[in-house]
Amino acid sequence: MSTFAAAVLFTGVLAYAVLGGADFGAGFWDLTAGGAGRGRRPRHLVDESLAPVWEANHVWLVFCLVMLWTGFPTAFAAITTTLYIPLGLAALGIVARGAGFAFRKVLVRTDQQRLAGAAFAISSVLAPFMLGTVVGGIASGRVPADGHGDPITSWVNPTSLLGGTLAVLTCAFVAAVFLTAEARRRDDVELEAWFQRRSQVVAGVTGAVALAGIAVLRADSPRLFDALLTRGLPLVLLSAASGLAALLLVRRLAPRLVQGLAVLAVAAIIAGWGTAQYPYLLVPHTTISEAAAPAATLWSLTIVAALALVIVVPSMVLLFVLAQRGSLESH
Amino acid sequence: MRGHTAAMGVLAEAVPLLAADSSQVLPARQMMAFTLGFHIILVPFGVAFTAIMLIANYRGIRHGDETALQLARRWSLVAGVLFAVGAVSGTVLSFELGLLWPGLMGRYGAAFGIPFAVEGLFFFVEAIFVAIYIYGWERMRPWPHFWSGVPIVISGVGGTSSVVAANAWMNMPGGITVEDGRVVDVRPLEIFFTDAFWYEAVHMLLAAYMVAGFVIAGVYAVGMLRGRRDRLHRLGLAIPFAVAAIATPIQVVVGDVAAREVHQNEPAKFAMIAALPETGTRVPEVLGGVLVDGEVRYGIEVPLMASILAGFDPDTEIQGLDAIPPDERPAARLVNTVHLAFQVMVAIGSALLGLALWGGFSWWRHRRLPENRLFLACTAVSGVAAVVALEAGWVVTEVGRQPWTVVGLLRTEDAAPTTGNLWPFFGATVVLYVAIAFGTFYVLRLLRERWRAAEAEGEADPGGEGDVPYGPSRARAGDRS
Ligand code: HDD
Ligand code: HEM
Ligand code: HEM
Prior knowledge:
Number of strands of chain A: 2
Mean pLDDT of chain B: 84
Radius of gyration of chain A: 20 Å
CATH superfamily of chain A: Formate dehydrogenase/DMSO reductase domain
Number of helices of chain A: 13
Order of helices and strands of chain A: HHHHHHHHHHHEEHH
Oligomer: heterodimer
Strand content of chain A: under 5%
Largest sheet of chain B: 2 strands, antiparallel
Shape of chain B: globular
Distance between the termini of chain A: 50 Å
Order of helices and strands of chain B: HHHHHEEHHHHEEHHHEEHHH
Helix content of chain B: over 70%
CATH architecture of chain A: Up-down Bundle
Shape of chain A: globular
Number of domains of chain B: 1
Largest sheet of chain A: 2 strands, antiparallel
Structural class of chain B: mainly alpha
Number of domains of chain A: 1
Bound molecules: CIS-heme D hydroxychlorin gamma-spirolactone, protoporphyrin IX containing FE
Helix content of chain A: over 70%
């Protein structure tokens, strides 16, 4: 039962990593798109493709938090009392990001747009970085069972920094691939090439960082390293293979397929982390079953998850389909 | 905001304490109050404003009323901005429950979390359909587009009920079995549907409709006071005003029920509301007044009234502060906060009832709302008043629960973190929220100016309309700059 609840929670993490990740990544491209003149067209595409979906994508985060604190309350308290600094910064980043994005659309003067846009874009990088360091802290065993771990070294450490960097890079990668497809849909050849080039560069960089990361993990969190290379190996390889395929075939395959490969690459590496840490929730202190809430709570969560499956998923599909078909545009 | 002055007082008292006390109770409370107080203002616009917008939309399609359609369309832009700010400020709250109240979440998350999990479902639905509705204006046919807005209203009701269920559980915890300080069993339905749930949820929903209704009506009342008495302004005032005016009388009745329930179920809170030092019967109602050294001063007494209100009988006994065990007795400062906040809420509720009756009477007699300056001026301030009542009501509920976070089970000081320093985080949050509040006002003003400019040019479809707030046709904005 508790494993099932953990699986539901983990599904939420996956969904947030992919969908929320694509949102964050779009902010990354917004940030790096260059000056007001040069960056206008990519920014415009970011705006248009993000606007209808970003709020729904970001409810996944709320879903994960709620699942965690209800299903595994003690572990949640341990995490928040230890990692409160990166969590707090991530929360502030999320506020600045959402507000900045919403405001920018209404503003017309370039300087104001720039200010709101900067808030949106900078926090789009800050928030996933912080969330990545949180994952690193948990995965490398820096959150004690009773919480109150070191407030600094729990997230400023090699594994966390690797986690943060990879989080930013994978977000950028997924977003670039999605935006390539989006540009293609609009028959904008120039923009398509713009994002395609960037997706290739960032895929290469991500691969290099991941390779270097192997050495980091070996030195900093041998337990995670071992698990990733044994139990987690198939998933790690799958991730590497689909990432590589996306990198090499980006010009040949249909953008949709590349999108699928990119999602697979990200989902597989996260699933790899999950498998590597199983059966622990807080490595190596607390197992999933030790942290679990009473059975009736877990059942309630299961029912909620089932309802989400029948209500939320179709609605979400409807939203994406409408957005993809261009039914949700105003010109 | 009420909480603000209270906060300053607390602050002055607490600074010397701080050095000796590593506990983070004070910043945690201040921060919770600040961020919740912010979020709650936006809630009515996600919950109720969307319903008001759909009413205009319905009218527009059903009766071919172009003005109503135009209003619905404009409102959806405003709702879009407010919804975004509401959503992100709500997300902060989710983080905060862990960051500020680890003792609460670690111990009772298994119970307290269940309503929040249900809430999560409604948020999903709400966020999805808000997007479909806002972006569907041009591309969907009118009726399907209208119907895509209906799930927003339903999930607004559901979401509000769920969050309030969590709050009601803190006031009247039930449905759990605790062994050795650990929750070992939960009964989810009992957790969700506590006795406090019903009146709190209904009261909050009505408050949302009142706040949204009066605020929007107030905006158009200001416009009319400035001489813009066209059909757009009349209708823009009438629709939200009607919604709020229907909600108000029901709200006063529900508030009355809530007060009697609190008298029954949370006598300690009721003692604070009444600022009653000693248990007794034939208790007078004190209007205004503060508790100083165990006595209520500077108030106006209405004989027997408190007893009559609490039990329809002058002999109804009301527990005083003396009935609370000394180690649980709240400080006079907290009692006064609750007492005055309650009075503010009731005073505003009664005043708004008067306004609603005035409007209703005129409608009944003349089929139109009054258009004299006094009525418009009252309507113009009614929105702010409703917001103040909303905040005051929450102060009654939350501060009135002290020293408990979960009544009888968990004290606030045991819920707060024991290490770390929350002050910098709190400071950063205040700065960010002030910036966002400023940004929101600015952006909404900008929208209005754009509409006005378009009207002045006599465009049929004023320029802003296609410009969904966080929406596409920004290409145009880009080109303009
Ligand atoms: C527009 C806002 C508004 C208005 C006009 C009123 N209230 Fe209210 N009140 C609220 C908005 C509110 C609220 C939404 O802020 C609260 C906080 C918690 C809750 O359930 O509703 C609340 C709480 C609240 C409580 C505490 C409930 C508890 O702690 O469980 C009582 C006793 C009342 N109210 C009573 C009244 C009475 C007698 C009113 C008569 C005029 C009234 N309220 C008008
Ligand atoms: C009476 C109290 C509350 C009510 C009625 C309420 C209602 C709402 C509503 C209707 C929304 C949708 C956004 C909007 O319309 O502005 C929202 C957003 C949100 N609220 Fe609250 N809320 C309350 C308090 C809280 C509390 C205490 C929390 C968490 C601890 C919370 C967490 C959230 C979250 C996470 C969101 C964002 C969801 C999204 O992304 O759409 N809210 N709230
Ligand atoms: C329905 C959703 C709400 C939930 C679940 C909730 C939960 C909490 C929690 C857990 C605390 C901290 C523990 C405590 O001090 O008792 C708290 C305190 C507080 N909340 Fe709420 N709250 C809700 C709505 C609100 C709203 C809308 C306001 C608006 C003003 C508010 C104002 C406060 C204040 C002022 C405190 C501090 C009380 C004190 O320490 O003196 N709450 N709330």
